[in-house]
């Protein structure tokens, strides 16, 4: 059981965190954070206006010279302290994350929170290891070296599916490299982003380095992206909103990092361990109630295994226990909102016209009737070009399709606009090697699907975006590289000047 602190008391001063202080937003619009398991009001808060975003950007700009001028060791120490504060408050974070998202407490406790603490500890170390090319006399007459510099104020926008982890993925590499941040969480789920910023203050990270503006996408989000005081936009969310963000960011020539939607294929070759693939498909498609950008969504199964795979996945889905996120026996919580549940149900209802709903496709009643629940769902017999195969559903829905040759399986896996993640299931090392080379995705797992680690990059190909979260690769997004070149000759008339004037040799 999580530590049930009083959310309304904790955020009585408001849901904006600017310059080290909680304060109320000044937009004309309020938003109510709802517990999707019950429909109950968790917190009603005034959203951020454009002026609130301006105040956050001013605070971040003011903090930048000091923070970017701190030594790597000082930033590293601060992040180590942040990891310690997060560890102390782990139960509070797990409780708040489950409350606002509807995640089973076991998921928040064993995945979201420890993943965030590990990420913080990773970036505490990485802050002291910014890398570049060795300084050398590449021209013969000069010494060249590279400075890796912080960019400035980073404006970040995050989605609601993993609010704590997404805030951490956006904030940690940015501040480890010396930037300051204004993050806009999704208005559905601001609690743990605000708590993360409070933890940063408790850890001694200076005011203004981490600011949170809880606001609507159209108002606060667009203002943040277009803000002339923001040097970089880092966005995680859907591909359509990402396109809009890219349009606005280009008007001020901002550096841009886009982590967008996914539609991950799960390719099962005919030599695979069927039981491992079936279990992997159920866990990989239902994690976080399917609201995971890397979730397994399209299971392509080679014909000899197809029928058995469909039967076993349906059987296993039937064993998954829906329930209140805070009950120890709950495997699957509700979706994040009733609107998201209805959107998911809409995909399944439309699919009944052209495919078979093998299991699920129902809204549970009884004790769960007030929550945004949806039964684990397996769809078979859909065409490759159909909506459920091509579009991101973002719910507990897996589609299974057969294939015959390896060429066909890989081609189908690549046949959507997305390219975030994929998995290949086989015991043949050559098949695995081919799948990992030929599937166009930022991550390809072999005989597993979902695990992530702080040391390795996460990011998309194709319409899933560009740039990397986590790992040392993320410093490529959050730093700019400057070439510094010193003349070593001391000569007034340098040899190369002859290309412009005179005949020097
Ligand atoms: P969304 O695109 O609707 O919203 C994401 C964020 O953008 C929210 O904070 C929202 O308020 C804001 N926003 C909305 N309109 C905006 C606008 N016009 N200008 C600026 N900001 C705006 O996404 P969502 O529904 O919150 O989250 C689900 C999506 O996120 C899925 O598509 C999922 O695949 C994606 N996602 C991707 C990754 C990844 O790493 N690639 C990770 C998690 C989620």
Structure description:
The longest helix is centred in the N-terminal third of the chain and has 22 residues, at 105-126. This protein is an alpha/beta fold and 505 residues long. It has helices at residues 7-10, 50-69, 72-88, 90-101, 105-126, 163-176, 191-202, 217-226, 239-251, 274-286, 303-317, 338-351, 387-390, 406-413, 429-438, 475-478, and strands at residues 16-18, 21-23, 30-35, 40-46, 142-150, 153-157, 180-184, 210-213, 232-236, 255-259, 264-268, 296-302, 356-359, 377-380, 397-403, 418-419, 421-425, 443-446, 461-462, 465-466, 479-487. An eight-stranded mixed sheet has the order 2-1-8-7-6-9-10-20, with helices on both faces. It contains 16 helices and 21 strands. It has two domains: 17-132 and 142-260 and 464-483, Aldehyde Dehydrogenase, Chain A, domain 1 (3-Layer(aba) Sandwich); 264-446, Aldehyde Dehydrogenase, Chain A, domain 2. It is globular and about 80 Å long. The model has no long low-confidence stretch (mean pLDDT 97). Bound molecules: nicotinamide-adenine-dinucleotide (NAD). Nicotinamide-adenine-dinucleotide binds at residues 157-161, 166, 184, 186-187, 217-218, 221-222, 225, 236-238, 241, 244-245, 259-262, 293, 392, 394, 420, 460, 464-465.
């Amino acid at each position: 059981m999580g530590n049930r602190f009083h959310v309304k008391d904790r955020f009585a001063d408001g849901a904006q965190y600017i310059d080290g202080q909680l304060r109320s937003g000044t937009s004309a619009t309020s938003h109510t954070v709802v517990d999707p398991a019950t429909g109950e009001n968790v917190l009603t808060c005034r959203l951020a206006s454009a002026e609130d975003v301006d105040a956050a950007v001013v605070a971040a700009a003011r903090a930048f010279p000091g923070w970017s001028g701190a030594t790597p060791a000082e930033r590293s120490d601060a992040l180590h302290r942040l990891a310690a504060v997060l560890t102390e408050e782990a139960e509070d974070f797990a409780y708040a994350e489950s409350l606002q998202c509807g995640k089973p407490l076991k998921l928040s406790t064993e995945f979201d929170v420890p993943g965030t603490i590990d990420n913080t500890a990773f970036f505490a170390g990485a802050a002291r290891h910014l890398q570049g090319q060795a300084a050398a006399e590449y021209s013969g007459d000069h010494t060249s070296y590279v400075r890796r510099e912080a960019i400035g104020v980073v404006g970040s926008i995050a989605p609601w599916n993993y609010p704590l982890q997404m805030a951490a993925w956006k904030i940690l590499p940015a501040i480890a490299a010396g930037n300051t941040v204004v993050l806009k969480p999704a208005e559905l789920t601001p609690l743990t982003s605000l708590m993360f910023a409070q933890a940063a203050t408790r850890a001694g990270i200076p005011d203004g380095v981490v600011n949170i503006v809880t606001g609507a996408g159209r108002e606060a989000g667009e203002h943040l992206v277009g803000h002339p005081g923001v040097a970089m936009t880092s966005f995680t969310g859907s591909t359509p909103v990402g396109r809009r963000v890219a349009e606005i960011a280009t008007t001020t020539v901002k550096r841009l990092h886009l982590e967008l939607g996914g539609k991950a294929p799960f390719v099962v070759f005919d030599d695979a361990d069927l039981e491992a693939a079936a279990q992997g498909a159920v866990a990989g498609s239902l994690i976080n109630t399917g609201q995971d950008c890397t979730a397994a969504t399209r299971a392509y199964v080679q014909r000899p295994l197809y029928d058995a795979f469909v039967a076993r996945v349906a059987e296993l889905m039937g064993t998954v226990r829906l329930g209140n996120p805070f009950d120890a026996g709950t495997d699957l919580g509700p979706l994040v909102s009733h609107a998201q549940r209805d959107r998911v149900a809409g995909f399944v209802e439309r699919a009944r016209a052209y495919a078979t709903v093998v299991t699920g496709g129902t809204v549970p009643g009884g004790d769960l009737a007030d929550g945004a629940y949806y039964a684990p769902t397996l769809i078979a017999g859909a065409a490759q070009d159909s909506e459920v195969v091509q579009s991101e559903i973002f719910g507990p829905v897996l589609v299974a399709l057969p294939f015959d040759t390896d060429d066909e399986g890989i081609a189908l896996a690549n046949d959507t606009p997305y390219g975030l993640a994929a998995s290949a299931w086989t015991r043949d090392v050559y098949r695995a090697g081919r799948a990992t080379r030929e599937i166009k995705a930022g991550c390809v797992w072999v005989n597993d699907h979902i695990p992530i680690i702080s040391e390795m990059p996460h990011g998309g190909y194709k319409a899933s975006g560009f740039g990397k979260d986590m790992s040392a690769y993320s410093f490529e997004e959050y730093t700019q590289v400057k070439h510094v070149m010193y003349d070593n000759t001391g000569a007034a008339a340098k040899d190369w000047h002859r290309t412009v004037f005179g005949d020097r040799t």
